[in-house]
Amino acid sequence: MSYFRVESLRVGYAGQDVIKNISLEFDRARIATIIGPNGSGKSTLLKAAGRLLPPYSGGVFIEDEPILAMEDRLVARKLGILPQSPTAPADLPVHCLVAFGRTPHHGFFGRFSREDQEAVNWALEATGMEDKRFKRVGQLSGGERQRAWIAMALAQKPEILLLDEPTTYLDIHHQFEVLELLQELNRLHGLTVIMVLHDLNLAAFFSHRIIALKEGELVADGAPQTVLSTETIRRVFGIRARILCIEEEGIQRTVAIPLGVRS
Amino acid sequence: MKGLAVDPDYRRRLLTGVGALLLLTIGLLFSIAKGSVDIALADLVKVFLAGESSEGIYQVVMNIRLPRVLVGGLVGINLALSGAILQSILKNPLADPGIIGISAGAGLAAMVIMILFPAHAALLPPAAFAGAIGAALIIYYIAYDGSAHTLRLVLAGVALSAFLGAFMSTLTVLYSDRVQGTVNWMAGALIGKSWTHLYMVLPYTVVGLIGAVVGARYLNILALGDDIARGLGLSVERVKFLLTLLAALLAASAVSAVGLLGFVGLIIPHITRLLIGSDNRFLIPFSAVFGAVTVILADTAGRLLFSPYELPVGIIMAFVGAPFFLYLLARGIKS
Questions:
Q1: How does residue B41 score in pLDDT terms, banded at 50, 70 and 90?
Q2: Does the ipTM surpass 0.95?
Q3: CATH code of the domain in which A23 resides
């Protein structure tokens, strides 16, 4: 039995295929990152996996159950998805935004229980947003806003969390903060993370697995050390790069240093 | 829910709520007291409490002014709710049943019944509802592709309204012997509204108000965007469809009672949002109250301004609403 998988997925917009027949299996409690150039179909793949886009053919399965056949709320309790730069009413208080994450748990009419409240508090704390809980979304900086949305996704308490570029708008400090948070949730709570990132080195540093896409097709898939190669980077992004393996703070890291486009 | 005491909005909502209800009470009394015959407050109290007064005043209050004012209030509620729902689900600040053509659809259907089947007046609301749905479907089909560009929706609505309006004008010309009252009706007037009209609108207001208050939670989640809403387990398409039906029902019942009364659904949600914020759990009920107040006061103004002539309430609303619409349009284009 596979934990989470997309199978022979063909999906796109307005009849145009963006993702051309991709099958992937994801293991429980792992961090997988999708990389690829603009227009390679990263976001489309993520949206289809999070059932925001209906596939033309193929399917998405949680523990072998097709998610399109499952009840929406049930899926929402297992699978959270945070699209790229979502928007909320500017006057929405942060704690209310985070509380929306509890929707699949208490239903649309159920009362907000102690458990719901605890989940909201935990999510605010985990993202370092407790002191901003009464701030309005419109008053937040880009980084704070991103963390508020992640807090909402965390309050949902999903087993699998899909994130489309969770580090956009963030400076390097906040980028690390967000990714370290996901890593910690992965280690402590067994959260399965599938995300889209632009930065190859962040992807390599925080992921168990990297999936490289180009023009809607799978180019490479595996551990960061194997995917991050001069050859793959040239094929996927069309740039020259040098790969370094360094050991810092007792951890082996693979680092790609881009050298240039023109040869 | 939680933390009401620390929520800085709580006081503002409370004050606005008290103010709105006060305004509604004053508006109701003022509107009943003022007109071609002014009625003293003491006489009003006598009519309501003792059920007696000099016979003439009792008649004026109970059979002319009161039903008229109450019909105005209900219609105001329905139009304001319809506008608030449409603005929310279409994510379009210019959405209003009058502007996007839903009222014209309801109006044409209602007019067909009034002129061609005058014996079946009971069919008015359901026919208007069918017309409103038809117009909504056309608009969705033409101008909506998941995001509904603001101006495209408005332009399509203007064109559809003009097209349906042409049918209405044709009807009035072809059946000019049967159209006394349709001039008032095309402009949206409350003159001559009786208890019959009140009972006709009331059930729709009740259903619409309950539906909108229940729907407010869904509207709040839809405000986060379709993707987020779907991710949270909301059946976005189904919810939007049901809420559109509700908005059409509310607009249709208003149109079948008083005709093409525009701009209420545009202005009221905007002003209410400025006062108490965009949380639909509050926006919906407050819009209802402000909608009622606005129509009642506008109708009173229409009665008093050029007395003994009476301006239909729809004309007063157009005087106020059209500039407001232009203001929103200008602001939208700049940003």
A1: confident
A2: no
A3: 3.40.50.300
User: CB A72 to CB B220 under 8 A?
Assistant: no
Residues A113, A119, A120, CA angle at the centre, nearest 5°?
95
Buried b (16+ CB within 10 A) or exposed e, B76-112: bbbbbbbbbbbbbbbebbbbbbbbbbbbbbbbbbbbb
Chain A residues touching residue B277 (CB < 8 angstroms)? 91
Q: Cβ separation of A88 and B223 shorter than 8 Å?
A: yes
B314 touches B302 (CB < 8 A): no
The band of B2, judged by pLDDT with boundaries at 50, 70 and 90, is very low
The SS3 call for residue B175 is: coil
Question: Which residue is it, tokens 């429980």?
Answer: A28
Judging contacts by C-beta atoms under 8 Å, the chain B residues touching residue A52 are 227, 230-231
Task: Specify the CATH number for B97-334; select among 3.40.50.2300, 3.40.50.300, 3.40.190.10, 1.10.3470.10.
Answer: 1.10.3470.10
Select from A44, A72, A109 the residue whose CB has the most chain B CBs within 10 Å, as the one to mutate to test that interface. A72
β-bridge pairing A31-35 and A209-214: parallel
Three-state SS for A18-50 is EEEEEEEEECCCCEEEEECCCCCCHHHHHHHHC
The 10s digit of each residue's pLDDT in B244-259 is: 999 999 999 999 889 8
**Location of structure tokens 């239909």:** B312
> Which residues constitute the domain of residue A13?
4-260
pLDDT at A36 over 50: yes
Q: Are B92 and B148 in contact (CB under 8 A)?
A: yes
Report yes or no: A123 and A101 within 8 Å, Cβ to Cβ: yes
Cα–Cα dist B86/A12, whole Å: 29
